Amino acid sequence: MASELIYRGGHEAHPPTSGGAGYTPKPEKRLLWLSRPLRYLLREQRLLFVLVGMALASLLFILAPSSSSSYGSYSSAIASELALRSAMDHHHHYQRSAVEAASRGFVGGKVPLGIKRKGLRIVVTGGAGFVGSHLVDQLIARGDSVIVVDNFFTGRKENVMHHFGNPNFELIRHDVVEPLLLEVDQIYHLACPASPVHYKFNPVKTIISFFFSFLVDFVFLCVFLVVKLATFPLCFGLHKTNVVGTLNMLGLAKRVGARFLLTSTSEVYGDPLQHPQVETYWGNVNPIGVRSCYDEGKRTAETLTMDYHRGAQIEVRIARIFNTYGPRMCIDDGRVVSNFVAQALRKEPLTVYGDGKQTRSFQYVSDLVEGLMRLMDGEHIGPFNLGNPGEFTMLELAKVVQETIDPNAKIEFRANTADDPHKRKPDITKAKEMLGWEPKIPLRQGLPLMVNDFRKRIFGDHSDSNPSTTTTSKSTGSGSS
Ligand SMILES: NC(=O)c1ccc[n+]([C@@H]2O[C@H](COP(=O)([O-])OP(=O)(O)OC[C@H]3O[C@@H](n4cnc5c(N)ncnc54)[C@H](O)[C@@H]3O)[C@@H](O)[C@H]2O)c1
């Protein structure tokens, strides 16, 4: 210690001179241009530099791109959580912050070996419904915390009650036409009556659910109401859910920096003039028909979603879902698969509307859930068709139901409903290439799973009331939509 003090003093008192005959330490020569405090730091604070180096290395490790799945990582979740908490604390309600951008940048970061991935906080609107409840099962299974927001218009507590008591699960009875503030990382927006029976019941409510948070939203709502409500006075309920509900959820995504996924529909293609339907096809929709509250409501929801993405830099995803079936469908919701299954089980004739030559493709619910999660966690906005390209006429579907349930079931023809699309079949090339997704379960394999569920629910056998999402099917209802 003493020698050190002596040395420093000597150095200050006798700065080295070039070509001097005495001892001239090299470091002093190189650091001549540095200020005295900096030289002191360089020489004496080696521990500090070690710590700074470790911090930089950790930062690089966290920021390094990952080849692993984007289902989130420990570090990304922590970063997102901190960023979002910070954003909330400072009430950054309407401005994208650098914190949000940073949190997104961490998505897909590496998970250090031995450290368990921390789950995300996710809202699923319509999570007590058919598709939503299966999605919730999968999200919970992979370790996320899920908040279901549902008004139980068509959904049922029974669909999610097997999660009651799980600390990672919350259920809120709430109508999405009213604003809601939750601190979350992702929003799956499914809330919308999806079957003709239900959306025709309150069509205006179905379309409107999006508009209230901001002035621009209010102006948008006024324009929309003037144009749409004059035309569709009976559709208010459905419109309200699709427009005001979607606006509210987009507003929430904007406030908390969450990623937003809209479940749109193949109905945006209307009665398509292009077959199969590619995402670039703009559709052929009757804007004043009885189905338009649903079709146009979803088209408007897509428009709002993209406007929020372009105008407010919200991270969005759009899925265009084709006919899906499986356990937990509503039994009497007017969709063709649930209709046929319920009728066959009750020994009633299968009602075929029109000549039965109109086609649809039918996707098992677990395939859809996988597609939705890949879309949400991937890097592409969409829209993406999510459906099974296997195409069946209504008569072919009736025959599959007869084979599965009752070969003696009768078929009865009825007058077709207005604007019933003649053909529907997804082109899923984009989803295959960009999401690495395609359906795996063919109709003849998935239908028996759904039939088991319907049988139990129709005939009151509740011995297995909590079917798993993907391995058993318990649902009711089918429809021609
Ligand atoms: N199942 C399909 O074949 C299909 C096809 C295309 C698109 N989709 C879309 O997927 C989503 C889910 O469809 P699904 O088949 O599960 O329908 P579903 O009717 O079973 O589920 C919808 C859920 O949303 C809830 N909901 C409706 N309005 C609400 C509101 N205003 N506030 C809060 N909750 C509300 C319902 O109670 C229900 O739980 C819908 O957006 C639908 O348009 C489904």
TrEMBL record:
GO molecular function, one term: UDP-glucuronate decarboxylase activity
Record-annotated membrane-spanning stretches: 46-64, 207-230
Pathway: Nucleotide-sugar biosynthesis; UDP-alpha-D-xylose biosynthesis; UDP-alpha-D-xylose from UDP-alpha-D-glucuronate: step 1/1
Signal peptide: none
InterPro entries reported for this sequence: NAD(P)-bd_dom (IPR016040), NAD(P)-bd_dom_sf (IPR036291), UXS-like (IPR044516)
Annotated ranges, domain NAD(P)-binding: 124-206, 239-448
Recorded family membership: Belongs to the NAD(P)-dependent epimerase/dehydratase family. UDP-glucuronic acid decarboxylase subfamily.
PANTHER family according to UniProt: UDP-GLUCURONATE DECARBOXYLASE, UDP-GLUCURONIC ACID DECARBOXYLASE-RELATED
Protein's UniProt name: UDP-glucuronate decarboxylase
Organism: Canna indica (Indian-shot)
Lineage: Eukaryota, Viridiplantae, Streptophyta, Embryophyta, Tracheophyta
